[in-house]
Design a protein that fits this description.
By secondary structure, the protein is of the alpha/beta class. It is built from eight helices and 14 strands.
């Protein structure tokens, strides 16, 4: 009898190649200077990309840590791979606002794909690396060099990177002033503890996300084997309580910008003082597993797999508006 061949690894490889082809677009104009860097950790050398303003100012500046999604890379997150990436807008922000951006590379997990050791205890394929220590080492290097203001460290991640952003908000010392998580949610079976201090939180999620369900549950596209998460609004409530904010928030619907975009965006904000703490939830009704963007648009073939992309806001710009006035608290 012929032995049945396991075609799952081949199928996943072909699917990843197809997703890359679908997402590919012209690389965005690069405003900041991007240079590769590495740093020694207990897990061995770890790599990252550092973006500096093309015309740097003097003195310590804000730092934004950017975390790619599962199977991605720092280069792809910053649009270096010739494909659309809403997170690549951080390069223009870096130059305009005199910000440093450190895009970190995740480690290889059990499935051979690069990712992060976030708080999901039941995501068996996540790497076992100490990614909190990695991020902390990068921050300390830049602070010790006098390049970064330690009270103005921020984090933004997409998908698995967004879930890692939750972990950094909980465990990074000193704490980031604020973080943003796109298409991500908090772990239902969590290896992380309670919040230790107030950290401002921005959550950006689509209600029709097929990978990270808005209302909680199993994570994954075709197989829900990437652990489980809480509902997004439960995560917003977690940080609202941690930040000592009132239960009622102020909601506003964003103007619709693009014909043919079936999604809509509603922003709910808890906390009136932009200097923090605040919690903001950007709910994309009908949106998929994809960062909203006005300029960085994915092709329709990609949207058919991961859901509709909203074009009513620029995710990185929304994050910077949320970050810029906030300072870390002891």
């Amino acid at each position: 009898m012929a032995t049945q061949r396991n075609t799952a690894p081949l199928f996943r490889t072909l699917l990843l190649a197809f997703l890359a082809a679908c997402a590919a677009l012209a690389a965005p104009a690069q405003a900041a200077d991007v240079e590769p860097a590495s740093i020694a950790t207990a897990d061995g050398p770890r790599n990252y990309l550092l973006a500096r303003p093309a015309t740097p100012g003097s003195g310590p500046r804000p730092l934004v840590i950017v975390l790619h999604g599962h199977g991605g890379s720092a280069a792809l997150a910053l649009g270096q791979g010739g494909r659309a990436s809403p997170l690549a807008r951080w390069l223009a922000i870096a130059d305009r606002e005199q910000v440093l951006v450190a895009a970190l590379d995740g480690a290889l997990g059990g499935d051979g794909r690069r990712g992060w050791n976030d708080c999901r205890r039941d995501a068996a394929d996540n790497p076992a690396t100490d990614d909190v220590a990695f991020a902390g080492a990068v921050v300390r290097r830049l602070v010790d060099a006098g390049a970064v203001d330690p009270t103005r460290v921020y984090v933004m991640g997409m998908s698995n990177g967004g879930m890692m952003a939750f972990r950094l908000a909980l465990e990074l010392e000193p704490a980031p002033a604020a973080f943003a998580a796109a298409s991500a949610a908090m772990a239902a079976d969590s290896a992380c503890g309670a919040a230790r201090r107030p950290v401002s939180a921005l959550l950006i999620n689509g209600t029709a996300d097929p990978l990270v369900p808005y209302f909680g549950g199993g994570v994954g596209l075709f197989r829900k084997d990437r652990g489980t998460t809480l509902a997004v609004e439960a995560a917003a409530a977690f940080w609202r309580r941690a930040d000592g904010l009132a239960e009622a928030g102020a909601a506003r619907r964003l103007p619709h910008r693009a014909a043919g975009d079936p999604t809509s965006a509603t922003v709910t904000l808890w906390g009136r003082d932009s200097r923090g703490p605040q919690v903001e939830l950007v709910r994309i009704d009908g949106g998929g597993h994809i960062e909203p963007s006005i300029a960085e648009r994915y092709r329709r073939a990609y949207e058919r797999l991961v859901g509709w992309q909203n074009h009513d806001l620029e995710a990185a710009e929304e994050a910077w508006q949320f970050f810029r006035d906030k300072r870390a608290r002891p």
